[in-house]
Amino acid sequence: MGPAWCATAGCGQGPAPGAWPSHGGAPGSVQAPTGQEAARGTLVIVGGGLAGDNEAVYRAILDARSGSGPLCVFPTASAEPEESLRSTLGRFDRYGGEGTAKGIPLTVAEPGRALLPEVAQEIRQCSGFFFVGGVQSRIVEVFRPGGRDTPALEALRERFREGAVVSGSSAGAAIMTDPMIGGGDSRGALLEGVRTEGEGEGGGGGVRLEPGLGLWSGAQVDQHHLARGRWARLVVVLLATPGHPVGFGIDENTALWVRGDTARVVGASGVLFFDVRGASREEGGHGGRNLRFHLLGAGDEVLLPSGNVRPGSGKITVPAGRHSVNLPPETDLFRQRAFQEVLVNFALSADSRLRMVQDGYEVELVKGEVFAVQVPPGKEGDLGGSGRGETGGLYAGPFVLHLVRGGGSLTPSF
Question: Average pLDDT for residues 148-153, to the nearest whole number?
Fold first, then answer.
């Protein structure tokens, strides 16, 4: 059945500066994430596809280093670790100067090196860390085989507690949480739900959860998010794992910077911030109602304990009514950047509600009570970001998502 839709005019106006309320819903029995402990360092979680000219993200990593040692790069996830290491070192040296970055070649070809005391000692001399992209399970296989921390991982955790930055792109982003998203797509997640490690391989058959490194607790992350239409798989995971009531879907060429109780967007595109506290889960299905989320752009912040969102300083409110939402019958909300396109057009329209049907699920978007769209100065006429389809600094929210099968009933969540 092709997507059907309807829209209703009359959305709320954006709030005055400093008046941004919490959009997390009722906290229920689950504690909100409190960010990193005060003594810990910084996470810079990159959604993949990091371009060599994205200076803002590289600077965010380099500026968060602690100590005089090098930034240490792990090529562990890559199928071609030597080439990945050479390319990544060159990029960091470009922005930090020659010798800024150093490779530590821990790979699945020699996983035993993660057990060596001399490697752990080498890690303790690093001012920060970067995990390249590839396959996230390779990182866990080397650093945490069988769920046991290796001396290499213990040394990295020690440096993180002392203030060092830990960063990574794509697979290097996925490993930040525990469990981590190990595979699957939005359609499979919505139709078949969550499956855990050992329940099968491949991209379909649901969204797969696997053990991660667990550097960030209380939240879940996903990467290549808008580019690959992964919004529904993150929603399904959040509804199925009550210990992770908030999630961040990080787009390509974009990073989420996390320090203390603050998460901030850096880079070229957007991040979807979901908060499912106060949501209701679908009984016998994998969706739910009252899932609150925001489309964040560069400079926008989330205050983690409360879920409050603070758009970037100096952004300008864009009036509604500039676009209309006309979805062709063949629209596939899981297609590359399709959900992003719908969100942006809906945000800029005068409509307050939008209903669609996708794979037997009703998808309803509602603008929240203090809905606003804001952009950086000078970007009012260029809301699509770059020619690569990135969203730039666009902020839009809060949205409320209802995602249920036709006629599905609901049970209380969190």
Answer: 98
